[in-house]
Amino acid sequence: YCDKIEHYALLPARTLEGHTLKVMANVELFEEIPSVLKMGADGIGLFRTEFFYLQQKRLPEEELLYEYFSKVVKAIKPYPVTFRTLDMGGDKLSSALKFEKELNPALGLRAIRFCLKQKNIFRTQLRAILRASAHGDIRILFPLISSLEEIKEAKELLEQVKAELEEERVPYKTSIPVGIMVEVPSAVTLINFLIREIDFLSIGTNDLIQYTLAIDRSNEQVAYLYEPLHPAVLKMIKEIVDVAHQAKVPVNVCGEMAGNPIYIPVLVGLGVDEISLNAQNIPLIKKVLCSISFKEAQNLAKKLVTFGSISEVRECYFNTIGKWIERI
Ligand code: PEP
Ligand code: MG
Hints:
Blueprint: E1 13-14, E2 20-27, H1 33-38, E3 44-48, H2 50-55, H3 62-76, E4 81-84, H4 111-117, H5 119-132, E5 138-142, H6 148-167, E6 178-182, H7 185-189, H8 191-194, E7 200-203, H9 205-213, H10 231-246, E8 251-253, H11 264-270, E9 274-278, H12 282-291, H13 294-304, H14 310-325
Parallel strand pairs: 2-3, 2-9, 3-4, 4-5, 5-6, 6-7, 7-8, 8-9
Antiparallel strand pairs: 1-2
The protein binds phosphoenolpyruvate and magnesium ion.
Magnesium ion binds near residues 183, 206 and 207.
C-alpha cells in the first residue's frame, strides 16, 4: 500500500484477491500518447479516430490517415491500440463532411450509419487502418452497432478492403481482432447473436445510458436524470457480461463510468474484464482497484441487480462502498 497516487501508475490493477483487470486509455489525438505510457496504461482501449478528421479542413486522404495511424501504432508499441472507426455525426460535425441538419442528431445519421452510407469515406479509413496494422498490434472497433446486419456489412467491407490490399501486395496484419461498441439498447437485447460475429466488445456507457434512459447526454436540463446506477443500466451490463463470458469474449467498458472511481466497485462486481478511461485518471483508478475485494464486489453487484428502483440501488451501493472507501 502506498499513499502516493502516482505510485499506482506502475502497478498492475489487481484486487485484494489478485483478480487482475486490464486498464487501457481513451485517446483522441496522437499528442496524448506520452501521457498514456507514463500513466501505466496497458494500451489504448479506445482511439476516437474522428478527432483527427475534425482537425482537418478537408476530408483526409488515405495517405495522410495512414501516416497518422502508423505514428500512433508505433508510439504505443508494444501495447495494442483499438481504433474505433469514424464516429462522426450527432454532436461531432466536421466542416469537411456534408451533414444535413437533423432534428434529433443523437438519433440521426452518425457513426456506423454514416460510414455505411458514405462507403468511400469508410473504405478509405479502413484501408489506412489496415495498412497501419503492419507496424504493430491493432484492433478495430465499430461504433453504434444496433443490428446484426450492420456488423455483417461492416465486416464484409473490411474483407473487401483486405482483398484489395492483397491484390495490390500492400502489407497488413491478417489476424486483426474486430469488435463492436455496445451502446444501443437493441445491441444488448441481441447480444447473444452479435457475440458470434465479434472478437471483443466495449460498452459505451455514455451512449448506452443516453439511449436506455432517453436522456440527451448533452442536455443540461435533464442531466440530473442521467444515472449510471439506474437498475436498467446495471441489468444491461450484467446481461452483456454473462453472454460474453459464456462465449469467452472479454468485456471492456470505455464510457465515462469507467473513469470515475465511484463506479469501479460495481463494474468489477459485474465481471467487467477491462476498462478504458482518460489517462490522467489511471493511477487513481488503479489504486481503487488494488483496494477492493473481488468477492465483496461480486456479492454487492449480485444484490444491486435485484432492485427495481434507483434509490434502492444507490442506498445499498453507497452504504456498502462507504465502508470500503476507508481502505483506499
Ligand atoms: C460512449 O458512448 O460511452 C463512448 C465511449 O463513446 P463516445 O463518448 O465517444 O460516444
Ligand atoms: Mg458512444
